[in-house]
Amino acid sequence: MTTALTTEDVTLTYPDGAGRLTALNRVNLRVTGGSVAAITGPSGSGKSSLLAVASTLTRPDSGRVLLETINGTVDLATASRHTAAALRRSSIGIGFQQSNLVSALTAVEQLEVMSHLGQRLLTSPARRRETRSKAMELLDAVGLADHHAKRPTQLSGGQRQRVNIARALMNDPSLLVIDEPTSALDTERGAAVIDLILTVVRDRGAATLLVTHDRTHLHRMDAVYRMVDGDLAPDHTAHLAA
Ligand code: ADP
Ligand code: MG
Fold first, then answer.
1. CA 133 / ligand 2 centre spacing (Å)
2. CA 55 from centroid of its chain's CA atoms
3. Nearby residues of 183 by Cβ (< 8 Å), 6 or more positions away
4. Of the ranges 98-112, 115-129, 170-184, which one carries the lowest mean pLDDT score?
5. Distance CA 148, CA 111 (A)
6. Which residue among 13, 14, 24, 50 has the greatest number of ligand 1 atoms within 8 angstroms of its CB, and so is best to mutate?
7. How many CB atoms lie under 10 A from the CB of residue 239?
8. How confident is the model at residue 99 (pLDDT cuts 50, 70, 90)?
9. What dotted CATH number matches 4-237?
10. What is the spatial distance between Cα 82 and Cα 87, in angstroms, rounded to a whole number?
11. Cα 121 to the chain's mean position, in Å?
């Protein structure tokens, strides 16, 4: 197995009045390529904070966040800003709750822009064609090929969420972090989005952290953890869901 994310005793605190609030308290987990670790837990328990740390957006106070890829192992907790930014472009797919789609761009352009980030030179026509065909392939994989020319306001909540997931896959990430992808969706569309995530993760081999409070899908995940007040523990009751 060449791809994995491992957190070792990751602790994160935020300033809180005169003291500090512990959002993550010595969190340990490991997820390997092609599998999905689900994180559940009450609101405010630290789930999004864990994804922010795993995706280099927030630096923990202590602990290690080891990303293993075919290129070697890097500790995301101590990576430089430059290295972290390069990793986000090359190896980490991020799908957060507020999907941050750009209102002026069509669905296919939302994906294409990911490939052109960080490129200082004008990209060649051949490279642009390659990017377009990859973006179309991913939109097709999420069932949106026919909607590729629509802007966010012309798409439903579920469709925007699927654009968001396709966009996170645009750089063939080793690590995929997705925060509550079904929270704005009805049961049926939520199930379709979970199906999609499980399929693409298994096909493409990304190590995936999926935050969800929807217990009906937990039995399909490779591992389930529960976060309570910054403490993460395996959830052995998850198979009883659904
Ligand atoms: P969850 O995703 O499980 O709802 P979060 O990770 O968003 O939980 O938040 C965990 C705790 O950290 C909460 O008490 C929240 O208020 C606090 N928190 C989150 N982000 C910040 C921040 N940027 N600054 C200060 N406190 C924060
Ligand atoms: Mg959250």
1. 33
2. 8
3. 97, 213, 214
4. 115-129
5. 10
6. 14
7. 11
8. low
9. 3.40.50.300
10. 9
11. 28
